[in-house]
């Protein structure tokens, strides 16, 4: 198949590279000429494990190319994917479909009459109808089928998720489009992952429902963590106890500083707005957003509590600023409100992240950027673990204690055993674990 992928951002780049690895011929299109030039030099615009190698291999084989000329790519395509951004619209939280609609107009002017146009961007229910209307208005002669094919990629594990998916959701009532999509995903289908064919609106709603449900699990276990601290229980054991029930499952039951990233906050808010517009309010999802926002702000108070509530003049080392490991993405990261609140409380903040430092410099002011975890901890009163990078899971605690002013660890991801940490002379504060009595 000849595929044109409109958008060379996270979804478009990963999807295009993986499709080309299946043997399809893929052209990724982006109107950012600097990004296209960098990709043609082999430079990735995002941090995603294995992506650079995957791209290089398929470029070398002639199956993957990067251009800024949409018309040339679309005019020769059997299938055109729309994979542009749909950020939250400023002011009201609706998904901003400006880029989707603009892409549809450009596609309509160049697309072959019988091509299949696929929306892979995360879009509200009914967007496929509007994309189809735009194409019909711009090019009445076209008989293209418009399909919804939402992505379910986790940053940091996107290539594996694409090649070994839990499910592939395809929304179309068009028999020809169904055959084309089945052929595109045939290499995966042979390995047995379920392909769910449904109508277009159901496919669009499925993506939002999935992310909002996962966000709900995170918000739920975080509230249970707060209760566990009050009553002297251990949230990790609670999570294991309920997660072993296969009706619930163990994933997304890890207490922490709240969810962030490019998907959960944005998609949950967009779903809320869709519910409001259709007089079907989603009270649970509304509460999830509120709980998560409060959660992020509360983490600074957890740090302050280790010092009797007073952080004035304290040096705090923050380890990890990206919203999760194995990515440089800081969108809606818990580190942002945490660091802002720490500064508001009078603390001096030191920061280190294995790959997120370039992005951190664009976000934070008046912080000290460090070269590694130990440099970050040197001279600090507390180390706060915000992102659970593997590099932070086996720190030399004795060395850490020797270079800190106060041996305090605030572990917002529960990656350390309290017993191990306290044996090395630290005051330990985790999430959802019985509170320690020692304070500095």
What structural category characterises the helix and strand content? Answer: alpha/beta
Number of strands: 14
Strand order of the largest sheet: 3-2-1-4-5-6
> So what's the CATH class of the domain at 2-198?
Alpha Beta
Distance between the termini: 64 Å
Q: What is the CATH architecture descriptor of the domain at 2-198?
A: 3-Layer(aba) Sandwich
Full CATH superfamily name of the domain at 2-198 = NAD(P)-binding Rossmann-like Domain
- Mean pLDDT level: 95
> What is the CA-atom radius of gyration, in angstroms?
24 Å
What are the salient characteristics of this protein?
about 450 residues, alpha/beta, Rossmann fold, N-(1-d-carboxylethyl)-l-norvaline Dehydrogenase, domain 2, six-stranded parallel sheet, elongated
